[in-house]
Amino acid sequence: MQFLGVNYLAVLVAAVLMFILGGLWYSPLLFVKKWVALLGKTEEQMRIEAASANMPLMYFSAFVCALITAMVMAHILAHMAAIMPTGAVHGAFFGFMAWIGFAAPTSYATALFSGKPKQLWLIDSTYNLVSFMLAGLILAAWR
To answer: I need a surface site. Which of 12, 41, 83, 121 has the fewest CB within 10 A?
Structure first.
């Protein structure tokens, strides 16, 4: 297997932006109130759970997940660039296709069988959509 040129700085930037987007997505500025309610919890319950959780490990794990996503996307986009031109629009479209083909249907099926509200899936899955498109845009444009 040949590993084509990947801009590792672009991978890091894409991962950092995905991580920051997640922090914003699940903040009071956007969806945290609705998200917490859909989980069937109160904000106080979430604060208590957060106080007893290993938050640094959780944040580190979330960043590693974003880094893995960005790295895999970068490698796929590098292979795609070998056979067709890529740019920011192509990268964003690739992110959309990755979401619609992999993330959305698998997470939706999981949500169906776990009994989670569809709105909860929508909040979580739309974060994935936006983050995949953002990462694809960055990775394809910054080669």
So the answer is: 83
